[in-house]
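=== RUN LOG ===
request id: a7f3
mode: sequence -> structure
chains: 1
length: 164
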Amino acid sequence: MISKEESRVYEALEGLGIPYKKYEHKAVFTVEEANNLDIRIPGGHCKNIFVCDKKKETYILVVLPDEKSVNFKELSNKTGYKGLKFASEEMLEKYLGLKAGSVSPFGLVNDDKKKVEVIIDKDIFRTGLVGFHPNVNTSTLTVTSEDFRKFLEGSGNKVRYMEL
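=== RESULT ===
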């Protein structure tokens, strides 16, 4: 059975005319677990990190290739936000309607107030296909890089592309 959280993703993609391919799998909570699945999901595999500034006024979803890591000091310098750190699970649920282990840019469908800014590492577009959880960690959807850009533009959230 498809959850309400998941169905909102499908409705958003279909509303934007974005085709996708769905891969069902056991629940995964980390990039490492996802990379060890017994199925092959084509395209770029991404890491999604939810962070906030020191004052907990600005919330950012960082999307980057799974082999990269985030240097918070460097990210603070590039974005101009002071003291970036991991945001709490409570804020993740409040702003993106997500639980830890299912963080995904598709959670933007739940950000009605457009509070979350999105930082996209340009390298995620190198493969032509990208995959993300549809707000649950028991499946992955792949879309083309261009359709992912279309989704981001359609979200209404502030989006910045940079090299991390």
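=== NOTES ===
The chain has one domain: 4-162.
Helices lie at 4-15, 31-35, 72-79, 89-96, 145-155.
=== END ===
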